[in-house]
Amino acid sequence: QVQLVESGGGLVQPGGSLRLSCAASGIIFNIYDMGWYRQAPGKQRELVAAISRGGPTNYIDSVKGRFTISRDNVKNTVYLQMNSLKPEDTAVYYCNARRTIYRWDYWGQGTQVTVSS
């Protein structure tokens, strides 16, 4: 049974930091590309950051220089370090594990991030 369990969300003031974690089980973690998505109320889900199984990363423009995605293939965990948070970063953040060639695609349950004073 595949499980992706996110943690680390919460309420933070503008300019603050949070670190999200996503612990994977039931998959061979190091063969998956991992990503963090977010969905704000009334908006479509969007890819925030991704890290391939080989290590290269990519980010949407609005978080470049503020967010960092990383993975630990021993702990089967992917992280999203979020610094200089803005109110527009408020959303539910979802972890995703994907291996496109095989159409393997798994999601976590999401964790709420609220940036507000």
Descriptive account of the structure:
The protein has 117 residues and is an all-beta fold. The protein has no helices and 11 strands. Strands 2, 4, 5, 6, 9, 10 and 11 form a 7-stranded mixed β-sheet that branches. The protein has a 4-stranded antiparallel β-sheet with strand order 1-3-8-7, with no helix packed on it. β4 (33-39) and β5 (46-51) form a beta hairpin. The relative contact order is 0.32. The model has no long low-confidence stretch (mean pLDDT 96).
- What's the helical proportion of residues? under 10%
Largest sheet: 7 strands, mixed
Low-confidence stretches: none
- SS strand fraction: over 45%
Total of helices: 0
Tally of extended strands? 11
Structural class label = mainly beta
Please give the radius of gyration in angstroms.
14 Å
